[in-house]
Amino acid sequence: MLVLIILVVILALCFDFTNGFHDTANAIATSVSTRALSPRVAVVLAGGMNLIGALTFTGVAKTIGGSIANPLKVQHGTIVVLAAIVAAIGWNLLTWRLGIPSSSSHALIGALSGAVIGAAGFHAINYSGFLSIIEALVISPIAALILGYIIMWIFRLLFGSRSLHRVNRPFRYLQMITAGVQAFMHGTNDAQKTMGIITFALIAGGFQSTMNIPFWVKLVCAVAMGCGTATGGWRIIKTVGSKIIRIEPINGFASDLTSSIIIFGFTLLKLPVSSTHVISSAIMGTGAAKRFNQVHWGVAGRIVVAWLITIPISGCIAAILVRLFLI
């Protein structure tokens, strides 16, 4: 059991690392594409702020670790977590290789749910907790789309009569701030998910009895995500930063502000969201407010399809893996 726990922790940190370069790329995509920050500075800033954010909150971790299933009631819980992490890492790497900004959050939640079902059956899922997580994942990008549209519409009213060059200059400086804020918010939510799944494994393995997140778990998860961020995620940055709309500093700032508000709001509610979904939806909302046909809806549709298939595919992969591991 101790060997299994060590393996789970190592693989969970590998997932956190892939989450760092996969999802955090979204947090700095707009500031890099508008040249508010150089790629090197943006990556270092995002890595540091991610680390701080990850150490600040634990509410989302407790939700992930205890709401999908009760780790004390799931047989072979450690193997369940092992299968879930392997499935989530595989999906992360595949979508990163293809440059698709799919959700690491969806991958992990889908994989954990699928692994629980594969090992213990559908009755082992805590459906009230699972549905509350799904609701947060569905509502948050819709809220980001609407709020992004509203914020950009207000900016158009305030600055529409001014020269675009004069307007963009101060917003380019403001983006230096919002890039760091957005990376911090990413850490407060996304890093918590790996903390939760490691704690799930610790409880299932009999190493602790409560969902209190040990400090060492918080620390290693925060460092892993920060290191992942420092490696960059240029394929994802290219898709989010240039292929959805042509981003200028004013709508880049509006997008960053929108996604920061949405992510932090759900963090305070102790609910996980997909930073990928939120940031991409915020960009779509601000682009639609500026000029509806400016949004590359074909690329946006491809992103939405990736969102829809991530949970079922990662769940099926994890269910198959857990059955193989239990043979």
Explain what you see.
The structure is a single chain. This protein has 327 residues and is mainly alpha-helical. The chain has one domain (2-325). The chain is 80% helix and 0% strand. It contains 12 helices and no strands. The chain has helices spanning 2-33, 39-56, 59-67, 77-98, 104-120, 127-159, 164-204, 215-230, 234-243, 249-268, 275-290, 297-325. The protein is elongated.
Q: TL;DR of this structure?
A:
The protein is mostly helical. It contains twelve helices and no strands.
The N- and C-terminal alpha carbons lie at a distance of 17 Å
Helix/strand-derived category reads mainly alpha
Major sheet attributes: none
Give the number of helices: 12
Instruction: Tell me the domain tally.
Output: 1
Classify the helix fraction into a percent range.
over 70%
Quaternary structure type: single chain
Number of strands: 0
What value does the average pLDDT take?
83
How large is the radius of gyration? 19 Å
Shape: elongated
Percentage of β-strand residues: under 5%
H-E order = HHHHHHHHHHHH
Spans of at least 5 consecutive residues with low confidence? none
SSE layout:
Layout: H1 2-33, H2 39-56, H3 59-67, H4 77-98, H5 104-120, H6 127-159, H7 164-204, H8 215-230, H9 234-243, H10 249-268, H11 275-290, H12 297-325
Helix pairs in contact: 1-2, 1-4, 1-7, 1-8, 1-9, 1-11, 2-7, 2-8, 3-6, 3-7, 4-5, 4-7, 4-12, 5-7, 5-12, 6-10, 6-11, 7-8, 7-10, 10-11
What key attributes describe this structure?
327 residues, mainly alpha, 12 helices, 0% strand, transmembrane helix
